[in-house]
Design a protein that fits this description.
The chain has 148 residues and is mainly alpha-helical. It has eight helices and two strands. α1 links the parallel β1 and β2. It is globular, with a radius of gyration of 20 Å.
């Protein structure tokens, strides 16, 4: 069989790189901008399908999260978070999940890209177990071998 020439789907929105989670948070979104600049410098975009993620609708986000959590994300800001102490505790938000300006749009961008990437048609694999679970195949995991 000939080798497939399928292209990678690449989602990027410059707005996600402008977010700052604070000095102690391990994620540094500006690295996404740096990675994107490398993609452009090496002209990798010519070998990929490039998309700007759309902003998911709150109703789509509520497919995966409770409506009160989505409402909370939409309303909370760094300036008013003191009014949401109960929800901050209930939703387990702290330094690891900081409240920042533009939080809801950030979540909508990530969710929109995730949804679109998940539903984008992809070609069928010759051997999906080999292609998607190579470590399990090599390790001979019992559940994998049994088709679970």
């Amino acid at each position: 069989m000939p080798i497939s020439k399928d292209r990678v789907s690449y989602y990027y929105d410059a707005e996600v790189g402008s977010v700052y989670f604070g000095p102690n948070h391990p994620m540094k979104p500006h690295r996404l901008c740096m990675t994107h600049h490398l993609v452009l410098a090496y002209k990798l975009q010519e070998k990929m399908e490039v998309y700007r993620p759309r902003r998911a609708y709150p109703v789509e986000m509520a497919t995966f999260h409770s409506e009160d959590y989505i409402d909370f994300l939409n309303r909370v800001t760094p300036d008013n978070q003191h009014e949401f102490l109960e929800q901050l505790t209930r939703f387990n938000l702290a330094e690891d999940c900081p409240i920042f300006d533009g939080l809801f749009d950030f979540c909508r961008i990530y969710t929109g890209g995730s949804i679109d990437g998940a539903v984008r048609p992809s070609p069928p694999c010759e051997n999906p177990k080999r292609d998607f679970f190579p470590n399990q195949l090599e390790a001979g995991t019992r559940g994998f071998e049994a088709g679970r």
